[in-house]
Specification:
By secondary structure, the protein is of the alpha/beta class. It is built from eight helices and twelve strands.
Length: about 270
């Protein structure tokens, strides 16, 4: 059994892989990398009754990986480049090579994985961290669940300037409900619910368009979405609208939020 641990800036994820199959998955939060890694490992073995002797190797990746200097619990422990982990995990979950991956975490990384190689096309500091940071500042909410609940009751036309505000008819492939300017209207009576929805809309529009540009540059019409942000249902709706406009389809494989940890574990395979 191989344990893969992705020590992120906000959340640490761990998986166990045996005979090419993902067996266990856990998530933890902690204030430092060592606590995060050991906590995720401990949660893995306690919750799933995994015996230490069953574990052949631990592979660590993510922002906090450099802070782990020694083997964990006497088990051989290696480190894997985060971009390579995303590429390996993404192709494994997608079931194919030659893909573009949009990995949405605190920020967003766009990865090109093809012919066994992985390259970092670019990315953005816009991601889940953007939503939480602005939500905390704008309406004093710091839990993602609360932001989503607010956004579910929001009205985008109270905050965003839409095409219908400036055009009487559709423009090219843009319909009248498309955003012309994020936060470009911001009515005085806009509610926290409206702002929360506009935040998510803005972040996923940026991610979606970066993904479209990356996909078109590699002559593909599909993007595999991974990372914590892959499960955001409102965000998925935003990406669906981008699909309608630009004919680039977004895919969400099972276990997408664990992609980087899975990729790290797979790197230990002979």
């Amino acid at each position: 059994m191989i344990i893969g641990i992705d020590i992120g800036s906000t959340t640490t994820k761990a998986v166990s892989i045996q005979e090419g199959q993902v067996i266990h998955r856990v998530k933890t939060k902690a204030s430092d990398a060592v606590t995060s890694a050991t906590g995720a490992f401990g949660k893995m073995i306690v919750e799933n009754s995994v015996k230490i002797g069953e574990i052949q190797r631990i592979m660590i990746t993510g922002a906090g990986a450099p802070k782990i200097k020694d083997d964990l619990f006497g088990i051989p422990t290696g480190k894997v480049d985060e971009i390579k982990s995303i590429g390996a995990g993404g192709t494994f979950l997608a079931g194919r090579d030659n893909i573009i991956i949009a990995n949405i975490g605190t920020g967003t990384a766009i990865i090109d994985a093809r012919n066994g190689g992985v390259s970092h096309l670019g990315g953005s500091g816009v991601g889940g961290g953007t939503i939480l940071g602005l939500a905390k500042r704008l309406f004093s909410v710091s839990e993602f669940k609360s932001v989503m609940e607010l956004a579910g009751r929001g009205r985008l036309n109270q905050v965003d300037l839409l095409m219908e505000d400036i055009m009487e008819t559709d423009l090219s492939f843009l319909n009248r409900e498309s955003t012309a300017s994020n936060f470009g209207k911001m009515l005085d009576n806009a509610r926290n619910e409206d702002i929360a929805l506009a935040l998510i809309n803005m972040v996923y529009q940026v991610i979606g368009m970066l993904s479209v540009f990356a996909a078109k540059s590699r002559n593909t019409d599909k993007v595999v979405v991974t990372g914590n942000g892959s499960g955001n249902l409102i965000g998925r709706g935003v990406l669906e609208q981008i699909t309608l406009m630009h004919q680039v389809r977004f895919e969400y494989p099972r276990d997408a939020e664990y992609t980087t940890a899975i990729g790290a574990a797979l790197s230990a395979a002979p």
